[in-house]
Amino acid sequence: MIVLNVLLLGGTGVISRQIVSQLLLAGHEVVIFNRGSRKLPFAGDVEWITGDKSDAQRFEASMSKRTFDVVIDMISFNEADARSTVNTFNHRAGQLIMCSSIAAYKRPYKTNPIKEDAEELFDNPEFAYAYEKAEMERYLQRIAGEQQLPITIIRPSLTYGIGGSNLGVLRQNYNIVQRIRQGKPLVMFGDGTTPWAFTFAPDLAKAFVGAVGNTRTYNKAYHATHESVHIWNDLYVEFGSIIGIEPQIVHIPSELLAKANPGLFAHLVFEKSYSGLFDNSLIKSDIPGFEATISLNEGLRMMLDWYESEANTVDADKDLLEDRLTELYFEWSRQMEAFQV
């Protein structure tokens, strides 16, 4: 086995903590760079470097005497971020692996399941997150082959995992469990039948670790997702099945939810309202053995165990918002019934 010296920019997020664990399991030497706000216990020795990547000049200076076999960047969200990483490591690393997002794909898709080579990049600045990720990729694609540094791009889909705060339509997390147990309704966007493949962080980490030092992945872009077919309703139905209580689900159009709270719900209109099924043939061909194997049931049990042991705090503001939205839903229902003749 070849032992590589890997720098991870980030290292404590939902996905990156799993990458660190799997790198250590594979026997690699791991260095983590972040702001040092929290240090997680890992089952192996990790070198920590504290700093702020947003200060590009100081960041580059801090790395001026370091070299790495591979750099994995989990904290670049736009072209400027990526440019800083490339400028810093162009002659100091053997490979750069960049975390993008399936949000960078333009909607509507041209393929279903989605294939990387058939799709275009997002071009609507109205949804800033997707647009900036796409701009980052355009920059990386422009410089591919011009730099000494080979670049691999990996695009996660919506990914759940321990430490995450993104589960549920309102990103309610533990609130979902609490509301089901209390018999309170949960809000689902649209009619809840949009197809989706739910992915969990330990599976996604396999893609990043499999790309480390893998020359097949140089100057290529991949998505890496589970391939099981579900619909969005299944997220709450499966939680209810695990808890043993059938959830009450109400359905509200994405456009109305976005009007109620654009910051919380805009992604439903621009991204989640489209099918989330992906063809992973490309990454499987270049990273032999890659496959997402954690089922929705297994993944939600993992999340429930974490909620019960550590993260069992109700978000009162989101709970109130969900109460208000469901009250509006039932009021609309009563008004619509009044139209019956």
TrEMBL record:
<feature type="domain" description="NAD-dependent epimerase/dehydratase">
    <location>
        <begin position="6"/>
        <end position="214"/>
    </location>
</feature>
<protein>
    <submittedName>
        <fullName>NAD-dependent epimerase/dehydratase family protein</fullName>
    </submittedName>
</protein>
<dbReference type="Pfam" id="PF01370">
    <property type="entry name" value="Epimerase"/>
</dbReference>
<dbReference type="InterPro" id="IPR001509">
    <property type="entry name" value="Epimerase_deHydtase"/>
</dbReference>
<dbReference type="InterPro" id="IPR036291">
    <property type="entry name" value="NAD(P)-bd_dom_sf"/>
</dbReference>
<dbReference type="InterPro" id="IPR050177">
    <property type="entry name" value="Lipid_A_modif_metabolic_enz"/>
</dbReference>
